[in-house]
Structures are given as structure tokens and as C-alpha cells.
Amino acid sequence: MKRPLRHEPQLWQDLDRLARLLAVRIPLDRAVRTIARQSRRDDLRSLWEGIRQEVVNGTALADALRQRHALGPTAYTLVRAGEASGRVAETLQRLVQERRSLARLRQQVVSAAAYPLTVGALAIVIVTTLLTFVAPQFAEVYRQIPQLQGQPLPWLTRTVMGLPRVLLVGGLLGLTLGSGTVLTLRQLAARSTPWQARLQQWSTALPWWGRTRQLYTLIQQLQTTASALSVGLSLPASLRLNAAPEWQQLAERVQAGRRLSAAYLETAQPDLTVHSLLEVGEETHSLVERFAEAADLLKEELEARLNGLKTWLEPALLLGLATVVGMLVLAVFLPVIQLLQQAAPGR
């Protein structure tokens, strides 16, 4: 299934160029026509030509982009507000910058998770190969050696020789139960808001991943709110652009007259740094800057966590892999060492 155009990196590059053209006072229809002529992909060229035609006919840019699925709901609201306030170029530039910033963070998170997964997969392949193909061959050899017949093999060797059957049964059982559990939880989360909140709470409680996921989500929410405020949306409307239930409740409390900083403390997992900055923003009437500053500070914390993970995880994984492989090799050759000891002079 082809993904929507709003997820295409090339479209966001076009939006960046459009923002730059609008920033130097080029009329919207001419700027869109320029983007259409420069586009190298037929589908994007057709998209921009259709948007230009609608703009010439009086359709707003945000509506023209939304009708062709080039903008998601949040981006559409921001661009529409930017047009209403006369700051569409600034809004587009901010959207592009935020998307690039989040894309870099996402790439760092994926990179940090990919390394242990790669090393773990390599370890599983090595250990499975040793247990499935190498260990049985040695077991057959040991059964044919007269000196070892009638004698029990070392306990480590016996354990390793019996692992293939245990791993096969346990692996199939674990894979079945794990897959069934994941699918069941996904279905419950899709159909029930309480289950969705409960799963989010469970994932947040995980030792390292919980805080990392919370930081990434909070950064996105803070950036979205800052962008909405910068184009003239009210504070409750800006908060509602974040789909998370706690932010919807936060918007309702602010709409009812509560102070933002006090209402934020009542959310499920408030960040104290964010709370302090929001307090300052309310006192100095600079919420846009404080939301953006909070997002930048959390970015630094997230990057530090990812760098720290890479620092200690690499040697830990290599040490663990070396230990497991070393024990397997030792288990395989222990009977040989036992045989050599029996054959030594004086025995």
C-alpha cells in the first residue's frame, strides 16, 4: 500500500522551498508554479499543479494541501492559522524545521535500538548454530570413544547437549505466547481508551525505554504547541492539537480558567523542568519561547541518554556474547580435557 504524500521527504523539501519563496514576497501562485516546475517526480509535479490551479481559483493553500492529503490534521490547522495571521511562510518554515528535528531524533532512537538488536540477533545465530550443528557432532563422537563409555559427561556438557530440545520447545512456545499477547494488547488498545492509557503507562514504567519514549513524545507535543501559539491560536486550541488524552484534559482545565503551570502538574507524568519554564512563561507572557526552550532542553537530555546507552551497551553486549560463546566452547571440549587427564602418566 502506497503511503500518503505527506510522509514523503521530497514533499517537505518542496514545502521548505515554498516557504523561502513566500518569505521574499513572491506571490503564492507564482511560488507554487515554481515548485511544480522544479519537481522531479511526476506525482509531486501533478500535486503542485493542481494546488496552483485551486489557489488561482481562490482556495486557501491549507485547504488545497489538505484535499490532496499533503498535510495531516495538525499541520493543516497550523498552516490555516498561519494564512489567517499573514505568517504562512514562517509557519511552513517552522513545520519543516520541526519535522527535520524530529526525524533526526527518531533516527538516533532507531540507531540506538538497532545496535543491540543486531548484536543480539548475531548472538542468537551463533549460539543456535553451535547448539544445533556443532554440539550434536561432538556428542556423537564422545559416544564412540571407549574411554568415555560408561562415564558421565561433565555437567556443563550434559546441560549444553540437552539445550537444543529445550530451546526448540521453549522458543516455539514463547513465540506463540508472545505473538498472541502482543496482538491481543494491540487489539485492546485500538478498541479501548483505558487499555491504551494502561499500555502507555506500562511502557513508560520500563527502565530505560520508558523515559526515552516519554521524552520523544513530550518534545513533539511542546513543539506543536509552540508552533500553534506562534501563529495566533489560543492556548486551549494549541494544546488540543496534541492527541494525547492528558493534553486534551489540560486544554479543558485551561479553558475553564486554570493556570497552565498548575494544570500541567496534574497530568499523569509532569516534567518538572517543563513546569518551571511554563511558570516563567506565564509570568513574563512568553509562552511561545518557553515551550520552544523546554523542547530544546528535553532534546539535549534525550541525546545524552542515547549517547550514554551506546557508550556502555557496546562493551556489555560484546562481553556477554564472548561469555556465552566461551561457555559453549568449554562445554564441548570438557570431555576431551577429561580424557586427556585420564590418559596422563600416573593416572
The coarse silhouette is elongated
Q: What series of H and E elements makes up the topology?
A: HHHHHHHHHHHHHH
What fraction of the residues are assigned to beta strands by DSSP?
Answer: under 5%
N- to C-terminal separation?
73 Å
**What's the domain count?**
2
Largest sheet composition: none
Q: Count of DSSP helices?
A: 14
Count of strand segments: 0
Share of helical residues: over 70%
Poorly predicted regions are none
Q: If you average the pLDDT, what whole number results?
A: 83
Structural class: mainly alpha
User: Compute the gyration radius: what is it?
Assistant: 30 Å
What's the short version?
With 347 residues, the protein is mainly α. The chain contains 14 helices and no strands.
Question: Any overview of this molecule?
Answer:
The chain has 347 residues and is mostly helical. It folds into two domains: 67 residues, Type II secretion system (T2SS), domain F (Receptor-associated Protein); 253 residues, no CATH class. The protein has 14 helices and no strands. α1 packs antiparallel against α6, α6 packs antiparallel against α7 and α13 packs antiparallel against α14. It starts with 8 loop residues before the first helix and ends with a helix.
List keywords for this structure.
347 residues; mainly alpha; Receptor-associated Protein; 2 domains; 14 helices; 81% helix; elongated
What is the element layout, followed by pairings?
Blueprint: H1 9-23, H2 28-38, H3 42-56, H4 61-67, H5 73-85, H6 88-143, H7 155-191, H8 193-204, H9 209-230, H10 235-240, H11 245-255, H12 260-264, H13 272-284, H14 287-343
